[in-house]
Write a structure and sequence with these properties.
single chain, mainly alpha, about 525 residues, 25 helices
Length: about 525
């Protein structure tokens, strides 16, 4: 078939054309190709310089009298005084992982496998501890979430909900964007995998993009930029409103609980950050449509005649809501109810997801069969590598060592004000998204650092670590920042410049929002002591 015939045969309103496996694979840019080419040798050189050249014994002097009683007690438990050979090995492996992940010299899952075996061979972790990270409770939450997400896809409930919402409320371009905002909020409450949400919504908003004349490639327009970039933003920020919004949120809560002994419940997280997520999503909508990608008059109306009718036809093809869909809805509502009341019954989010997946898979009375479940195991292996690095951090106490070494070098003593620490840590967490590929990795680096800083200066660890954790989902500025970012970049509806200028702006706004919340909302909830600056 010639290219012309292929183009004629392509139906822009057929949702099957926008499945993940059918998206065209982008060729790497010149810069990306160069990075991929130098990534492997750079990783080897990095490892040699750190592991074989750096010397152990760099002492960190801390005056215990400068710490509060509370801080001293915790520091004596988790603190350390010098970089040992194991610490240096940990630093070398971590640096190699960052280089390989950022340059994409080899597949991400392969980098994770290299990290895991390197931690074993260098003696940082035992085989039992390193390999056991594949069984981390957050890994199980992700697996169970993909089971439940597959149930939504198989029964058609997710598609029905999205189409119904669009058909009834997407009367014009503005209402379409806001409809996806609300759809993402609802899905974020139920689905703990942002990639799964992206896979569910991608075919729907791509068809709508085609209806409004956005075909990608040489046919980019601001409607296409808006609908894809806004969905990318909503997918991630929507997840920040719920403890179960992503595995990284749960990991952060586990890290905080490990140091403080205080559990972060679903209801606690939602009360503190759900209003912030909604506010940021509305701001993201305004920034996109009013500043960066304002719609021309012709972009505000459908370009394909009968396009919206096609969506109604797609909804009609689903027929009346089935008994299986009703069972799916009931099961998800039950799961959400158990998550929201975890403070009262004590069942963990992972255990709740386990129970939901078991019910969904039960023969005869269940909703989905195992063969219908789509679990991206390469992502699971990628995550396992990140969790193994986290186990290495815990074993070597590298974050605390690094924190103390840095603050000693800078000469910052016990009199350092809370606001300075808050600004520094939240800034680092937000803008690290420009360099890191994994939000799990950012969680494993910056939440322990926040805990270590709080301990050193005598503040409640929650006051710094939880606001930092609330910023985990800011992973939308560049295509390598997260799996949804990489996936949606393949739609070719926007350029690298488009996503960077919009993403960077929202990172800045997100940081300022965190500062404002630290001074007001978080202070009222007793998260931050007397606010950030203490001016109210």
């Amino acid at each position: 078939m010639t290219e012309e015939k292929k183009a004629k045969a392509f139906d822009p309103l057929d949702m099957n054309n926008y499945k993940i496996e059918k998206l065209p694979k982008r060729s790497k840019s010149k810069v990306e190709s160069i990075l991929a080419m130098i990534g492997s040798p750079l990783a080897v050189i990095t490892f040699i310089l750190i592991y074989f050249v750096a010397k152990p014994g760099f002492l960190i002097h801390i005056d215990p009298s400068s710490l509060s009683d509370y801080a001293r007690q915790i520091y004596e438990t988790i603190g350390a005084e010098e970089f040992s050979r194991i610490n240096i090995a940990m630093m070398a492996i971590f640096a190699v992982g960052i280089v390989l992940w950022m340059t994409e010299a080899i597949p991400n899952y392969l980098t994770s496998l290299i990290i895991i075996i390197s931690l074993v061979l260098t003696g940082v972790l035992s085989e039992k501890e390193a390999y056991a990270q594949l069984g981390h409770k957050v890994m199980w939450l992700n697996i169970m979430s993909f089971v439940l997400a597959s149930m939504l896809v198989k029964t058609g409930l997710a598609k029905r909900f999205a189409l119904w919402f669009i058909v009834h409320f997407g009367k014009n371009s503005s209402s379409l964007f806001l409809s996806f905002l609300l759809i993402n909020v609802v899905l974020s409450a139920f689905i703990s995998a942002t990639t799964a949400k992206a896979a569910i919504l991608l075919p729907i908003f791509m068809v709508i993009a085609a209806i409004y004349g956005a075909r990608g490639g040489d046919n980019k327009n601001n409607f296409g930029r808006n609908i894809v970039l806004q969905n990318l933003f909503y997918i991630n920020i929507g997840a920040s409103g719920f403890l179960t919004g992503s595995g990284a949120n749960l990991l952060a809560a586990s890290l905080i609980a490990g140091v403080t002994g205080a559990d972060i419940f679903f209801s606690d997280w939602m009360k503190a950050n759900f209003p912030v997520a909604i506010g940021l999503m509305v701001i993201g909508y305004l920034v996109a449509t009013k500043i960066f990608f304002p719609l021309k008059k012709e972009e505000r109306v459908p370009q394909i005649e009968g396009g919206m009718e096609r969506l109604k036809e797609e909804l009609g093809k689903l027929g009346k809501i089935s008994f299986e869909e009703i069972k799916s809805a009931v099961l998800f509502l039950a799961i959400l109810a158990l998550w929201a009341t975890d403070k009262y019954h004590g069942i963990s989010p992972t255990a709740v997801a386990f129970l939901g997946a078991i019910i969904a898979l039960l023969p005869r009375i269940g909703i989905v069969k195992w063969n219908d479940v789509d679990i991206p195991w390469h992502l699971m292996l990628f995550s396992a590598g990140a969790y193994t690095l986290g186990a290495g951090f815990k074993a070597t106490d590298l974050p605390s060592l690094s924190v103390n070494a840095t603050f000693d070098t800078l000469g910052l003593g016990a009199e350092t004000p809370f606001w300075m620490l808050y600004l520094l840590l939240t800034f680092a967490m937000v803008f690290s998204a420009l360099f890191f590929q994994s939000k799990t990795m950012r969680t494993m680096i910056f939440v322990p650092i926040a805990l270590g800083v709080a301990v050193r200066f005598g503040y409640n660890p929650i006051s710094l670590a939880l606001p930092v954790a609330f910023l985990i989902e800011h992973v939308y500025a560049l295509p390598f920042n997260s799996k949804p970012a990489a996936l949606l970049y393949e739609t070719d509806q926007y350029s690298m410049t488009d996503t960077f200028k919009y993403g960077l702006t929202m990172l800045v706004i997100g940081w300022f929002m965190s500062i404002l919340m630290g001074e007001t909302w978080y202070r009222w909830l007793d998260i931050t002591p007397n606010g950030v600056f203490g001016i109210f």
